[in-house]
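Homework help thread (please don't just give me the answer)

Our assignment gives two proteins as sequence + structure token strings and asks us to describe the second one. The first is just a warm-up. Here they are:
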Amino acid sequence: MTRIHLHLVSDSTGETLEMLAKAALARFENAEVQRHFWPMVRSRQHLDRIVPELTANPGLVFYTLVNTETRARLEEHCRLLGLPAVPVLDQVVGALETALGQAAHGRPGRQHFMDEAYFRRVDAIQFTIAHDDGIGEEDWEGADIVLAGVSRSSKTPTSIYLANRGYKVANIPLVIESPPSPTLFGLKSPLVVGLTSAPERLVQIRRNRLLTLGEMQRTDYVDDERVRAELAFARRMFADRGWPVIDVTRRSIEETAAAVIRLLGERERGAPSEFEGVRAI
């Protein structure tokens, strides 16, 4: 197994750098990477405090530094230590400068300024957290998106991911013994999307969930026939209401969220959706 140290050096929160590193590392198997995270590096003094860590844990350095003096000093340290240093956004920014015909601004953390989009995202996150798992039905009409599905069909993580993209989301569990509030069926503004999964995969996820909770006793929650009945109940509801359906069995949270956003865009354009009327299982 290959082991490396990866140093992530940023003059802002480092969120972008961390996501880029994570996306790139996902393409490699059998690699053990120890990440060292260095955010808000905006001065020579701060950078100099990092150098002993680079010396003690030599490896690869990814950085997003705007200040030319700080960049040059980091690059010089890396050259002296024999460490490869990669300015991960330079090619992207350079291509944009050429296409747009203007120079990029040199302000650290500019993408995190508290603009209108920032506050919209904060509002969306607050709304989504307050309307998790069927809570707050009086406000469902104010959602951009409503996700419905049986237990462990990725409703909550997908909702949170969408909220971080600025969408207000409510998610509603579908339980045979306790049908959802009639409010769900009268919604006009939100896009209602049904989430479903292959029964075998759902049983596996539920079993893992019970194990993490220390629950070893077998229950209907993981019974194969019971799970199939729950999914059939949900499918009938989706079909009766004409809601688009997304099968999350082989989709990551990001892929499911992207499909939901695409559905929202198609509805706004009045275009037919590939998910309409899907019989997912």
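The one we have to describe:
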Amino acid sequence: MKQLDKVLLEKLVVLLREGDTAAFNELYYRYKGKIHQFAYRFVRCSETATELTQLVFVRLWKYKHTLDVSKDFDAFLLTITRNLVYKEFQRKAKADTYQNELAKQEHTYDPVASFMDLQDYRQLAESAIESLPPQSKKVFKLSREEGASYERISNELNISKNTVHSHMAKSLSHIRQYFKIHTPETVLVWLPVICTAVINW
């Protein structure tokens, strides 16, 4: 980066540390492409890379008060990304292990029972969504049920994109915790698939 860019970056980091949403938005638009590209090199899936990119900026906002202007901001973001990629690999490894176990037991597969399981998970997911705070529930349903973009949600609910990001992150965390409490641990690795299936039922 040129010297002027470094000065501007430092100003943006200082403002972000103080909770300035405009500075956050500026950093988001400057870095989202770079973070997505970095994540994609590892996960080789655009959708997963996009989700990881969103999580990076959710983490950035959450820990904004810990930012050190003297430290390399680019390196800070890439470190967050690497950590999230590592967690994604762990999640994928658990899912693959579970899938292998299912393959071994394929001869005992019962389509009727599986259908009933899906019905149960659908009801569980609906309960988890209904237990969200009102605003988070609106954001989540617009995103997952209507396929609305964060920009559209921001405009419809008259809230910032940062607030949309925050609601989505909190909603997903809440739903995972809800499933963790109400289902066996092995179900958690399939949570994204289950949620997609039951929400689009």
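TA reply:
I won't write it for you, but here's a hint about the kind of observation we're looking for: Confidence is low (pLDDT under 50) at residues 109-116, 185-191, 196-201.
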